[in-house]
C-alpha cells in the first residue's frame, strides 16, 4: 500500500458515499486509476464493506449498554451456542472474547430498560455464569475511522 491508497482509505472512512470522481479529485489521481485502486483494496479485503452509520437517538435506540460476561464453560460446544445466541439478538452490535478476568464483552443498543431486560432474557439462554452491565451516560468520542494518518509518510 502506498500513500495514495492510504489517502483513498482515509477519504472513504470519512464519507463512503463519495463518487469515484470525487474521490479521485480529493486524492489527486485520475478517475480510472482511483476506481482500479478501490477495486484492488476491496479484492484484497482491506475494504470489508461500505455501510451507512445511523443515528441511534433518531431510531429510538438511545441506551447503549456494555455487557460483561463470565462463563464456567470453556469448550467449543458452549462457544458455538453462545455465538448463535448473540448472533440472533438484533440489539447486540459487537461481541468480543477477552483475556483477563472477563470472558466476553458485548456492546448493545436498546430503547430503554425494558428493552434491555428483553435482550438480557434472550442472552441468558446461553447458560452464563455471571453477567454485569454498564450503561453509557454520555458518549464523549465515537468513531469508525482507523488512524491511517500515522501510516502516511
What would you note in describing this structure?
The chain has 153 residues and is an alpha+beta fold. The protein folds into two domains: 3-52, Winged helix-like DNA-binding domain superfamily/Winged helix DNA-binding domain (Arc Repressor Mutant, subunit A, Orthogonal Bundle); 63-135, Alpha-Beta Plaits (2-Layer Sandwich). It contains five helices and four strands. The protein has helices at residues 3-14, 20-27, 31-43, 76-87, 113-123; strands at residues 63-70, 92-97, 104-110, 130-135. The protein has a four-stranded antiparallel sheet. Strand 2 and strand 3 (104-110) form a beta hairpin. The longest helix is centred in the first third of the chain and has 13 residues, at 31-43.
